[in-house]
Amino acid sequence: MRLRLTPRETSFYDMFSASADNIVTGSKLLMELLGADPSARAEIADRMRAAEHAGDDATHAIFHQLNSSFITPFDREDIYSLASSLDDIMDFMEEAVDLVVLYQVDQLPKGVEQQIEVLARAAELTAEAMPNLRTMTNLTEYWIEVNRLENQADQIHRKLLAHLFNGKYDAIEVLKLKQIVDVLEEAADAFEHVANTVETIAVKES
């Protein structure tokens, strides 16, 4: 059985938790964007950009700790994969908000709110799961539920694409909106990557 308790190991758990908590912040900014007047979106984008930078800092801290640690709580490649996937989530959420502002989207298509609600729920579950990496307990329901949410996100995404291509939007608007909903779908995929990595870690450690 792998020895877990070393002076260096506990910091990884704290850093993963901090990264996941920052993703919750990002998901709340996405929710805020939904109800915001177009004139208020730039300010939300600025706050999202700051959150994304905080996420980058958290990821770099994990990588630095990984490179300077002789003993790690679980496999190095899994630590790298988990940190990278958490960082991807923030990158995609920040990109979606930035595109809304850059493209000067007047109104987001119906169904985007469902995408964002799925992301917000996945963010909450991920933040709740990260502290459990210390004990490798109460994680099975987490990855099962996140995978279910990703399947739900896929269905919402397909419906959104069908709506965008129904002929009611002009071609340029379709291109703009499709890129936004595609990026939100990538965020959902990244949540699944995090859950799959956690499952891999738990299986190896069992």
UniProtKB/TrEMBL annotation:
Region forming the signal peptide: none
Domain of life: Bacteria
Alphabetical list of InterPro entries matching this protein: PhoU-like_sf, Put_Phosphate_transp_reg, UPF0111_domain
Pfam families: PhoU_div
Protein family: Belongs to the UPF0111 family.
The name this protein goes by in its record: DUF47 domain-containing protein
Source organism per UniProt: Streptomyces palmae
